[in-house]
Amino acid sequence: MAEAQWYVAHTYSGYENKVKVNLEKTIANRHLEDEILEVRVPLQDVVEVKDGVRKTSQKKMFPGYVLVKMVMNDDTWYVVRNTRGVTGFVGPGSKPVPLTEAEMKPLGIRMENVSVDFKEGDTIAVVAGVWKDTVGVVTRMDYNKQTATINVELFGRETPVEISFAEVRAMN
User: Fold this and answer.
1) What is the pLDDT of residues 120-134, one digit of tens each?
2) Domains parsed from the chain with CATH numbers
């Protein structure tokens, strides 16, 4: 199978989040999780000062565009292209062009894979983020998103939580 790459889909302005939700539903309904891996609306933090009050908010980096990490083939092209709100792919004619690693870097999206020293079934400790100081057993690894899913006890129940590889370490 070909390797998944990031492509840019053009949307109606203001429909980026709706396109993301609709596309994710379609991916789940058609069981294309292995071919269309991720859909993103890139955001950036913006600091505004109004009446002497600093306020931080998030704004879309590219209004009218959605990033899609996918294996390009006729089926995936059709699904994305025919999602309500999508007007087409960025590229000459109807041929989508994948983003290069240099183009992805400023967006904060890593293309290289991180190697980790734990696997499914191992016990790990969370060392950063919201779940810091939590210990859990890895139930799932997602190398595309670079996340591990662990079960943590929340309100007396085992609850699956997705944690970035960067926030955890293996316990020996």
Assistant:
1) 888 888 887 777 888
2) 5-107 (3.30.70.940), 123-170 (2.30.30.30)
